[in-house]
């Protein structure tokens, strides 16, 4: 299927690895030029080189912490202040117990997983509206639909972003800007490995056993992949997504038993 976005330009945040990289690759395959971001320059530059070599699009890597004002300024400068497509992403907050977290922990999580996405939408969506076309995908989590007890910081911050998007997506749709959230369940990335190693350590089992046990809780009996995720993201950024507005799209292999 031709996604109809060849020659558009996208910012994909937190994209040297994992789900962000999956989104960057799928957009590049559709002919989209990219600004990609992550904190670690080495992995980011390598990813940029590999994407250029594979898909022949322009890729500008910007090594910066996207959760800071300086990091966002750096990516916005690389974009010359405008993009057609924005994929918001950042690392997830650490797991813990509800009594563990201080005010500072909550502020940090809300900054990273809610207010960073809001700031980038506020910076880039007005230009998309003026030009009459834009796409935004916010990577959130299945925890928005089925909160995960040990991920209280994530549950809190992502619920806030979801509420914001529910309103703003409907305010910008008349101007051709389509905003949706993509909710990953378990995908085989470094993040999943670190969650599995936490379980393995706590329960005295191997990481492989922790993973196998978790796979059995998913109807597909497998984890998702960055490629699965990226393909869905690219579709939501395509011409064909014109009528999908303000949705929370769950990619979890059926793990959350929600039929409505
Ligand atoms: P990942 O494999 O750990 O990759 C994270 C990517 O984000 C890396 O490129 C990392 O590079 C970059 N990054 C992290 N913090 C950053 C920051 N502050 N500024 C810029 N770049 C940053 O993670 P993932 O599995 O792709 O997960 C992506 C998001 O989806 C996370 O928020 C995660 O909580 C959420 N999620 C994932 C799953 C899953 O199963 N994988 C499930 C539910 C939700 P640097 O470290 O070099 O910055």
TrEMBL record:
Coiled-coil ranges (or none): none
Family, as annotated: Belongs to the short-chain dehydrogenases/reductases (SDR) family.
Entries under Pfam families matching the protein: adh_short_C2
PANTHER family xref list: 3-OXOACYL-(ACYL-CARRIER-PROTEIN) REDUCTASE, NADPH-DEPENDENT REDUCTASE BACG
The organism's taxonomic lineage, starting at the top: Bacteria, Pseudomonadati, Pseudomonadota, Alphaproteobacteria, Rhodobacterales
Name under which the protein is recorded: SDR family oxidoreductase
């Amino acid at each position: 299927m031709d996604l109809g976005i060849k020659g558009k330009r996208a910012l994909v945040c937190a994209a040297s690895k994992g789900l962000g990289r999956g989104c960057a690759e799928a957009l590049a395959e559709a002919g989209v030029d990219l600004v990609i971001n992550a904190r670690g320059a080495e992995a980011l530059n390598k990813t940029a080189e590999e994407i250029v070599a594979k898909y022949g699009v322009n890729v500008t890597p910007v090594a910066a912490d996207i959760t800071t004002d300086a990091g966002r300024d750096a990516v916005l400068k690389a974009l010359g202040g405008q993009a057609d497509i924005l994929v918001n992403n950042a690392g997830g907050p650490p797991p813990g117990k509800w009594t563990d977290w201080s005010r500072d922990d909550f502020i940090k999580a809300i900054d990273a997983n809610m207010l960073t996405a809001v700031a980038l939408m506020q910076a880039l969506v007005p230009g998309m509206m003026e030009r009459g076309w834009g796409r935004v995908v916010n990577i959130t989590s299945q925890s928005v639909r089925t909160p995960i007890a040990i991920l209280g910081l994530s549950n809190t911050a992502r619920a806030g972003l979801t509420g914001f998007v529910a309103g703003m997506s409907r305010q910008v749709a008349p101007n051709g800007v389509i905003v949706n959230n993509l909710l990953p369940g378990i995908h085989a990335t470094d993040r999943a490995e670190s969650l599995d190693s936490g379980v393995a350590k706590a329960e005295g089992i191997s990481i492989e056993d922790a993973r196998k046990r978790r796979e059995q809780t998913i109807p597909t009996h497998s984890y998702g992949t960055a490629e699965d995720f990226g393909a869905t993201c690219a579709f939501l950024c395509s011409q064909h997504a014109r009528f999908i507005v303000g949705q929370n799209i769950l990619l979890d292999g059926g793990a959350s038993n929600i039929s409505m």
